[in-house]
Amino acid sequence: MATEVIMPKVDMDMTEGKIAHWYVKAGDKVSKGQLLFEIETDKATMEVDSPAEGVIQNVNDSIGVAIDVGTPVAWI
After folding, report:
1. Contacts from 2-5 at CB under 8 Å and sequence distance 24+?
2. pLDDT score for 68
């Protein structure tokens, strides 16, 4: 079963974030807890880890574009 990777909410006021850097690409095998991408908000930069083990698919590779919290940015 596929697991969606979403734009996380990292603080109470956050409604959107921007992907600053992907550490993986479509087709890469990942393990749970592995670093996937880095996001930028108005207040901080955060690293986001994989919620599951599997193969990365359907990566939203729009670097620097505002993405709403809860929006899927990839699938595992």
Report:
1. 2/54, 2/57, 2/75, 2/76, 3/51, 3/52, 3/54, 3/75, 3/76, 4/72, 4/74, 4/75, 4/76, 5/36, 5/48, 5/50, 5/51, 5/72, 5/73, 5/74, 5/75, 5/76
2. 95
